[in-house]
Automatic annotation (TrEMBL):
<comment type="function">
    <text>Allows the formation of correctly charged Asn-tRNA(Asn) or Gln-tRNA(Gln) through the transamidation of misacylated Asp-tRNA(Asn) or Glu-tRNA(Gln) in organisms which lack either or both of asparaginyl-tRNA or glutaminyl-tRNA synthetases. The reaction takes place in the presence of glutamine and ATP through an activated phospho-Asp-tRNA(Asn) or phospho-Glu-tRNA(Gln).</text>
</comment>
<keyword id="KW-0436">Ligase</keyword>
<dbReference type="InterPro" id="IPR023168">
    <property type="entry name" value="GatB_Yqey_C_2"/>
</dbReference>
<keyword id="KW-0648">Protein biosynthesis</keyword>
<comment type="similarity">
    <text>Belongs to the GatB/GatE family. GatB subfamily.</text>
</comment>
<dbReference type="Pfam" id="PF02637">
    <property type="entry name" value="GatB_Yqey"/>
</dbReference>
<dbReference type="InterPro" id="IPR006075">
    <property type="entry name" value="Asn/Gln-tRNA_Trfase_suB/E_cat"/>
</dbReference>
<dbReference type="InterPro" id="IPR018027">
    <property type="entry name" value="Asn/Gln_amidotransferase"/>
</dbReference>
<feature type="domain" description="Asn/Gln amidotransferase">
    <location>
        <begin position="344"/>
        <end position="491"/>
    </location>
</feature>
<keyword id="KW-0547">Nucleotide-binding</keyword>
<protein>
    <recommendedName>
        <fullName>Aspartyl/glutamyl-tRNA(Asn/Gln) amidotransferase subunit B</fullName>
        <ecNumber>6.3.5.-</ecNumber>
    </recommendedName>
</protein>
<dbReference type="InterPro" id="IPR004413">
    <property type="entry name" value="GatB"/>
</dbReference>
<dbReference type="InterPro" id="IPR003789">
    <property type="entry name" value="Asn/Gln_tRNA_amidoTrase-B-like"/>
</dbReference>
<comment type="subunit">
    <text>Heterotrimer of A, B and C subunits.</text>
</comment>
<dbReference type="Pfam" id="PF02934">
    <property type="entry name" value="GatB_N"/>
</dbReference>
<dbReference type="InterPro" id="IPR017959">
    <property type="entry name" value="Asn/Gln-tRNA_amidoTrfase_suB/E"/>
</dbReference>
<dbReference type="InterPro" id="IPR014746">
    <property type="entry name" value="Gln_synth/guanido_kin_cat_dom"/>
</dbReference>
Length: 492
């Protein structure tokens, strides 16, 4: 098994190469409307049904900033402990494209709303502190998305869907601090988790509401940065990791064959597992940026910033630390806090009275195992936190043994009934009745006199056989602790 903390290197004919990675993540802001219009932003709507006159760039239409989009960008910046710029400005990025009706994109180039911050990642969930690394975030700016061209609707024409035109995006730009596919994957997963905790983006990468542009270059360890390429619109953590690996190997092969890396935009083909050239960026485009004359600068007051900060939830790292302080292992704490829905479900379980360690053991093994087996997620779990707390309570007070609890849980999954109801209706209560257990033990010892002699002669491993026979005879309903005590007494 590879050491997650060892430096990642690509071995070429001329020796080892280091990869340098930076990500530009576009995250669609969760809001009630688009960035500069009141049009809806629901996913999957019929083409061109969510387009206002502003989005279609009709003459005389003026943009008005959506307060909620600005608020969500600020909250996101606060969540990564970034500098919040009280003064920021919108710029026009001028270029012509068929899905950009205005002929320019409103973005923030020179004065973004959020400055430098950082995201802490872990490469080993079982030992997160030993494998941690801090990845710098250079900036977060807000901008409007373009529409979408559809080339498969007609044999000779391309159609334009402007539903996405004007949708609010946060562009979250990392520093080139990542040095492996694993670090890039961990960074993107952690960023997605933070956005979902904050509620500023749903993180649905399969729907395009979060996508990454992957900047990759290679160098000999310790040398100056090499020329980078940018692979656009990668829409899963796994694909980002594949892009880093494949693009870095391609660059090493080009350089070692005597070629040079061209600064360019590339696309990723997941079916073939390779990146392909899309367009050259040898000469940077002159987008003729200038301040948007229709929009005043954004000026944020202290009251607005205080409201944003007060609205932040407990974030993944703080929640993980709280769980660990309650005795939960670092690995389980990392698993439970990785996704906001799982963390909220687990918090509700604790609020219902479950003990932290027992609850974590059961949730990460029994519940998550059952959900994986049945193809469900925590949001569609057939067992509620309240029902789970009731089940764990019956184990804690001795009503159910571990094996009986598993039986009851399976019935809960099938029927949706509560644990106490199942125990009462099906007679699954654990017995600690010493008289009944002693009677069963006496019968088992009498039927296995030869094994009793062997045990007394020093073959102590047979004790487990006697325990198993007793539990089997009592259909798993005997209290294992009582069985052990009474067997030791009977065999003494």
């Amino acid at each position: 098994m590879a050491d997650a903390t060892a430096p990642y290197r690509i071995t070429g004919e001329t020796g080892e190469w280091e990869v340098v990675v930076g990500l530009e993540v576009h995250a669609q802001v969760t809001s009630n409307a688009k960035l500069f219009s009141g049009a809806a932003t629901a996913f999957g709507a019929e083409p061109n049904t969510q387009v206002s006159l502003v989005d279609a760039a009709m003459p005389g239409m003026l943009p008005v900033p959506n307060r909620e989009c600005i608020r969500q960008a600020v909250r996101t910046g606060m969540a990564i402990d970034a500098q919040i710029n009280k003064w920021s400005r919108f710029d026009r990025k001028n270029y012509f494209y068929a899905d950009l009706p205005q002929g320019y994109q409103i973005s923030q180039l020179y004065h973004p709303i959020v400055g430098e911050g950082a995201i802490d990642i872990s490469l080993d969930e079982k030992n997160p502190d030993a494998s941690g690394k801090r990845i710098g975030v250079e900036r977060i700016h807000v901008e409007q998305d373009a529409g979408k061209l559809m080339h498969d609707q007609h044999p000779t024409r391309s159609y334009v869907d402007l539903n996405r035109s004007g949708v609010a995006l946060m562009e979250i730009v990392s520093k080139p601090d990542m040095r492996s596919p694993q670090e890039a994957g961990a960074y993107l997963a952690k960023l997605r988790s933070i956005l979902r905790y904050v509620g500023s983006c749903d993180g649905n990468m399969d729907q395009g509401s979060m996508r990454a542009d992957v900047n990759v270059s290679v160098r000999k360890p310790g040398d100056e940065f090499g020329t980078r390429t940018e692979t656009k619109n990668v829409n899963s953590v796994r694909f980002v990791m594949q892009v880093v690996e494949q693009e870095a190997k391609r660059q090493v092969a080009v350089i070692e064959a005597g070629g040079r890396i061209v600064q360019e935009t590339r696309l990723y083909d997941p079916d073939r597992g390779e990146t392909r050239s899309m367009r050259s960026k040898e000469d940077a485009h002159d987008y003729r940026y200038f301040p948007d004359p229709d929009l005043l600068p954004l000026e944020l007051d202290d009251a607005f910033l205080e409201e944003c900060r007060a609205s932040l939830p407990e974030l993944p790292d703080a929640k993980r630390a709280r769980y660990e302080a309650a005795g939960i292992t670092p690995y389980q704490a990392a698993v439970l806090t990785a996704d906001v829905d799982s963390a909220l479900w687990f918090d509700t379980l604790l609020e219902a009275g479950a003990k932290p360690v027992a609850a974590a053991n059961w949730t990460t093994s029994e519940l998550f195992g059952a959900l994986n087996r049945t193809g469900k997620d925590i949001a569609t779990s057939p067992v509620s936190p309240g029902q789970a707390a009731e089940l764990l309570g019956l184990v804690a007070d001795g009503t159910l043994s571990g094996s009986l609890a598993k039986q009851v849980f399976e019935i809960m999954l099938e029927t949706g009934d509560g644990a106490a109801k199942i125990v009462d209706e099906r007679g699954l209560k654990q017995t600690s009745d010493t008289g009944a257990i002693e009677g069963v033990i006496a019968g088992i010892l009498a039927a296995n006199a030869d094994k009793v002699e062997q045990y007394k002669g020093g073959k102590e491993a047979l004790f487990g056989f006697f325990v198993g026979q007793t539990m089997k005879a009592m259909q798993g309903k005997a209290n294992p602790q009582v069985v052990n005590e009474l067997l030791k007494k009977a065999l003494a």
